[in-house]
Amino acid sequence: MPTQPSKELETFANPHPGRDYTIRIRIPEFTCLCPKTGQPDFAVLHLEYVPEQRCVELKSLKMYVWSFRDEGAFHEDVTNRILARLVEACAPRFMRLTAEFNVRGGIDTTVVAEHRADGWQPAIKVDLP
After folding, report:
1. Does the structure show a pLDDT above 70 at 1?
2. Residue 82 near residue 115 (C-beta atoms within 8 A)
3. Catalytically annotated residue among 20, 32, 41, 70
């Protein structure tokens, strides 16, 4: 197999570090295992961030997400661990990870975790007519 899952995240220099802009990434095929039953859990991850000096490289993100496939994890824990690792790699101004888990036992779960750099404030939203 040419590629393998990996816990490594690669980054690249933000091409526009002087501007606040939002990067949105949708990851529709996240899987991990229920730590109680060993059954697979499926989720759609939504990553949104305002980069500072570094952006996450997408292929490494794909391999990183893949690394959870055979790992038991509670939804709340895995969402926060992924966010923490991404923040460690990128040191963004702001980052939000929303994990929408599919139904398991008649219950679906959405976990939202956020990071905000010290002193960073979002720009005032402009609503155009």
Report:
1. no
2. no
3. 41
